[in-house]
Amino acid sequence: MVDPRDVLRVRWFLQRVLALAELVGWALLAAGVWVYRHTLGRVVSAYIRWSRRRVAEHLAWARMPFGRDAHRLFPVGPQVRAALRSWHQVGPLAAVAYFVKAFILLQTLLNLGRIVNAVTRWSSRVWAESERAPVVWWAPGGGLWGQARQVEWTGEQPGIDVTVVTTFRAFGESIWRKATQYLPALGAPEGRPAEAATAVFGLVLTVALLLALRAVLGLLGRRGPTRADSKHGPGFAAPHPRGWWLRSLLSLRPGAAKRTRPVVVLIDCVGRVGAARHYYQTITQPHSAIYAARVDLSRVERVVWSAWKVRHRQVPGPRRREYRKHAADVVGAIRRLEARQDIDADTGQVFEEMARLLVMITERYAQGRTLALLDPKDLKDAEPAVNREWVRLIILGVVMTGAAIAAGLSELSAAGSTQIVAVVGAVAWVLLYGDRLAPGDVLDVMRGQSRK
Questions:
Q1: CA–CA separation, 370 vs 326, rounded Å?
Q2: In whole angstroms, how far apart are CA 136 and each of 43, 159, 209?
């Protein structure tokens, strides 16, 4: 018999323990909030105030050359200010992440030979051990559907990697044996009708198995909402595309810094246009046209080429052609406007038109309107540009690959081969790009940006 008083005592004890735990939890939370406000909170507040001050200074610096015409030629909308504020807030943190990631990639590149050798040795060892390792009971040769494969017992259990390779190898060998036994009968079914029928049924079952696996993967991908998800409802963002983690790993401009950087580049270009206009009004017009200012818009072109890729995380395949066509039209209009610096007599008017278009592109990009960076009237009679950077990149890759193969076949040492490949790559880089592309813009080329 259980004494009811003991049950009441246990219940009272548990209630006191829960009350004490709740009290300790609230005390720890209050202490954590107090410590945050007086230590890290002050640092965060000071950092945010510094970033806002940097935004004001940046805009004042860019709008200074326009003088009294800044409100007319260089208006700044709330979306542009928000993007610029986000850039100044995450810029220093992104710089740290950039250097860390670049250092890791550099160390990987310098030790690529050791990594490849280690992977090769590991794969060779696992493949050799898989020939002597026992097969799991449910795989072909494991004893479930027939005689188990006889192996020499060494007294040591194989590792998980050897077991996985052995299992896949057993399935592959079994499928290959069945295919070589029955598929040739399809060439002459009248002579081997039983084997031909078996091959047909096997193909049908294979297709059914693939469809079943696809359905299972679809069900696993469409899992129900968790308890945390049920509090916020469904999200609007599309799922991550395939290989997004690899792109994020190789990208040297992570997160918000990558999406807001085009706004910073465009604002700086508008500031340079204002400086050129001021120089034209104060030096060129009063003195001589020999002192003519010119603005290079190559950075704007690279921003426009990749605007839809950077601004949006994922773009469906059927719409990519539309994005590329609009980017080519906008780049064509920018090149036509850049050429007018050497065509029109009133260069000051050209600079004002250039500032208007760049401000429009900046505002539209900050708003996410990457399919309307310019109005149709601004794109009228503009010849679409052509992106040929992939051709140069492929040529550079072929040249460096050929140099690496030739150096490997030669009798040079490893250090000499590496130097030969580096010299050939540098020469090919100069011949293909010259001074049009800086080493830091390789990522821009990979995104599809072009200057030619």
A1: 9
A2: 58, 13, 22
- Terminal alpha carbon distance of the chain: 92
Give the CA angle between residues 246, 92, 238 to the nearest 5°.
40
φ and ψ at 238, to 5 degrees? -75, 155
Q: Going residue by residue through the chain (452 aa), what tens digit of pLDDT does each one get?
A: 556 666 677 788 888 889 999 999 999 999 998 888 888 888 888 988 999 999 999 999 999 999 889 999 999 999 999 999 999 988 888 888 878 887 887 788 778 778 888 888 999 999 888 888 888 877 877 766 666 666 665 666 778 888 888 888 888 888 888 888 888 888 888 888 888 888 899 899 989 988 888 887 777 665 555 555 555 556 555 555 556 556 665 555 556 788 889 999 999 999 999 999 999 999 888 887 777 888 999 899 989 988 888 888 677 777 888 999 999 999 999 999 999 988 888 888 999 999 999 999 999 999 989 999 999 999 988 888 887 767 777 888 888 888 878 877 777 666 666 667 777 777 877 777 654 444 444 444 444 445 44
SS3 string, the chain, reads CCCHHHHHHHHHHHHHHHHHHHHHHHHHHHHHHHHHHHCHHHHHHHHHHHHHHHHHHHHHHHHHHHHHHHHHHCCCCHHHHHHHHHHHHHHHHHHHHHHHHHHHHHHHHHCHHHHHHHHHHHHHHHHHHHCCCCCCCCCCCCCCCCCCCCCCCCCCCCCHHHHHHHHHHHHHHHHHHHHHHHHHHHHCCCCCHHHHHHHHHHHHHHHHHHHHHHHHHHHHHCCCCCHHHHHHCCCCCCCCCCCHHHHHHHCCCCHHHHHHHHHHHHHHHHHHHHHHHHHHHHHHCCCCCCCCCCCCCHHHHHHHHCHHHHHCCCCCHHHHHHHHHHHHHHHHHHHHHHHHHHCCCCHHHHHHHHHHHHHHHHHHHHHCCCCCCCCHHHHCCCCCCCCCHHHHHHHHHHHHHHHHHHHHHCCCCHHHHHHHHHHHHHHHHHHHHCCCCCHHHHHHHHCCCCCC
Please give the structure tokens belonging to residue 347: 């260069």
pTM, to two decimals: 0.66
Closest CA to 7 of 18, 17, 20, 15: 15
Tokens in use for 390?
A: 């992939």
Check if the beta carbon of residue 337 is closer than 8 Å to that of residue 252: no
In this structure, the number of other CB atoms found within 10 A of the CB of residue 109 comes to 9
